[in-house]
Amino acid sequence: MGVEISFDAYLRSVVSAYQQWWRLYTLTDATGQESQGVEREQISPAFFDFGLMVQTVDKEKVERQKEKEEAEKEKIERLPVLEGICKYAADHVLLVGRPGSGKSTALARLLLQEAENALSDRNAKIPVLVELRYLPSEANESSVCDRILAFIHKHDPALDIDEAGIKQLLRQGRLLLLVDGVNELPSDRGRVMVNQFRELYQKTCPMIFTTRELSAGGDLGIAKRLEMQPLTEPQMQQFVMAYLPTQGEKLLQQLSGRLREFGQTPLLLWMLCSLFQQSEQIPPNLGMVFRAFTVGYGGRIKQDVTLSKDSRAWWGRLLQYLAFKMTCGENLTELQVAISRREAEQILVEFLRGKVKYADDCAVRWLEDLLKHHLIQISNDRIEFRHQLIQEYYAAEWLLELLPSLSDARLQHDYLNYLKWTEPLALMLELVESEEQAVRVVRLALEVDLRLGARLAGAVKYGFQEKTVGLLIREIEERKIPQLYANELLGETQSDFVVEILIAALKDADYYVRRTAAEVLGNIGSNKVVELLVAALKDTDVKRIAGEILGNIGSDKAVEPLITALKGVDKYLQRMAAESLGNIGSDKAVEPLITALTNRDGDVRRIAGKALIKIGSDKAVELLIAALKNADEDVRMTAVAVLGNIGSDKAVEPLITALKGADKYLQRMAAESLGNIGSDKVVEALITILKIDVDVDVDVKRIAGEILGNIGSDKVVEVLITILKDANVDVDVKMIATVALINIDLKDADVQKTAVESLGNIGSNKPVEPLIAALQNADVGVRKTAAESLGNIGSNQPVEPLIAALKDADAGVRKTVADALIKIGSNKAVEPLIAALQNADADVRRLAAKVLSKNAQSDRNLSTLTQQLPHLFTLIPTESSQAALSVITAIQARCKYYNYDIAQTPLPPEDNPNPTTGNTYIFNDKVDQVVAGNLTVHGDNIATQNNPKTAPES
Prior knowledge:
Helix content: 55-70%
CATH topology of the domain at 8-229: Rossmann fold
Largest sheet: 7 strands, mixed
CATH class of the domain at 8-229: Alpha Beta
Shape: globular
């Protein structure tokens, strides 16, 4: 690799393929025809700019002795998704989100952005997409480097590069890896491979990973996590109106407060709009949304499309069985999201044998029809469903048919206990028509794991939830579950039947109980929650926290009560109301917030300003421009600052006017705001001031030059150099231009990182004894350095002294000690750390839990830790509850099951645990209407379904 490799052809291919990135994640048939029949591409879920946000998660919280409302603050940052993942890529970042929340779409957008950047900048990193679902399984021997090569050669087959060349690029830091689907890793071997790869190139190659909230692959030890934020109501409403300009209002009226339930993610919201466009009716739950959508998908294939004989009649059952077998995977814990064509054919043959003649031939031909016309596709020579949610839905339909034939023990041992079945089971319960069966599943789930049971208790049909949630509440009471964990369990249900209990918990004496209750209510966010919280604004004990939750929910119904609170006399309530109105983002709040800029309380003014920045609408900009003429200086100053942060070009001319004004303070604020906007319009206006406006004061010109230096774009550099070469330009102006250019150079200079070598870098056991002794040193810095060095050495010898040092008086030392124990990762530490979970000191318990949770990621510790699960469950009713729960969750995510005892007690195999038929929906013409409960078919359509409890009318 002595010759520089040219990636131009590769980059041009990536740009061409991803120029319309939204089409990659729109469900189309194999010929590229959008099966939803939508003509306007601007309304596909990915193309529509939702303004998706991510939020950083820093689990280290500020610990304080006094119990106050401000006692626990997470270091949280909210920012646009692409900005967030770019910001933290160098240190490796994990993007976490619900299925369909836009994670893969974000990577596609970033891939395009960085490929375009690399074409124009030779020093830019080369972006490569790595899809983890194609890593090794028992039938596939692919490595991470293989996947990198495959993606590069897919876009430039002629590029002369091999695995050795890829490794050299990785070491040189030339690549940016976009790694999609940690949760889709097909095997433990794949997870270990990715972890080793990440550690090997951690210092040289930036990487961005994506995973689900409940990741079967763990977090790979990645410290920085970004969470995809749920859509707000205004974002949902904007999409609905863009997708359905004539029907949108009707859909929003029918939803009547249920928008959050159906619009949790862009994908689900799009599916709902697609259905409503055809039928103008809303299914009762998400399970029925999937059923109606998938049935309608097949039904929209035109009758004149050439298909194999009888193919269409079998599509539903074939997809259900294929999804079920892929979810079963190669063992109890792993699922498959991509399989070879041969494997897919064998699965279909297995299903068809005994049902049709020439099963082998039918399987081959019908699989080809499905690939051309339905919700599976071939990618990288492997067959997969078009989205993992679709696979989970079809698996749920098969489970629904299987359910009556499953014994309680079989249901627990083969399905409920394994994490990979949780989502299919939840979707299945939304389709279960029998209350008896729904209650049975939830009862058995609660025996397996309380959190699992809570999740499923809220997944059943609304009419059954009183009983299923009642089962959960009874378990909480009988097992004496602490209120803090009880709040979390109740929140898992997302059910209205827990809201009143949680509202009451807002008055609990314990701050942490109040805080978790508030977070849970915000996540539920239903109409009932909003109504009770609006009423709670009049309750002195909970009004502040109620207002905060309303802001997080983002419901329009909360706007008027919050405006009333903003106009009130309680300054704390005013602050909360201002912040909440900013979170909701309604234009109705703009005028009251601008009025609040004159509030006597400085914090109210500041928060109102931030709220206006968040809203950032045209109406806000217009009213803020008008506020520049306000008689109150504070209002003018705040308006200038807010306009700069909103960044609208409409504000440029008024800000230039302020820059030229006599008020020096306002000048400085206007300058900062113009620099924040930094658009071409700002640059042109500032260049005019600097070079042309002879009547402008030299101080104003100096400020203009300073702003140009801060902006530092290519256009600015070009103009400033022109000024220096122009003999007719004033000397003062040339000086200002020179200073600006110097500032640009300083801003772009490389900052070299320095590192101090410590004793721990020796890497042998020789320093261990003196370092252990140094853990007792009177100096905090010495103790911290000793702990860090022991972690770098990695010997088992200091494990017990380090565990003892978790009690150190200094919080910084305690954190360093915990990090050292994580680095050592010894099995020898497990039992002492488990014992430390019961320490009287809450901080010791928290740090012990942190170490154990991290160590659960290691294969060498997994067996030891899983054996501790039964003991850890016994700690839930004690003061060690939260520490134990965090360890339990980490172990479950890593071992991929909930209950150790059940996992270790396999049942004898059954002769034939699978039914011979699945749920079938056959449509021989366009589907005009698919509605809740039953399938309503019009015209000459034929509907059949092998499930008498939900039989359609025809």
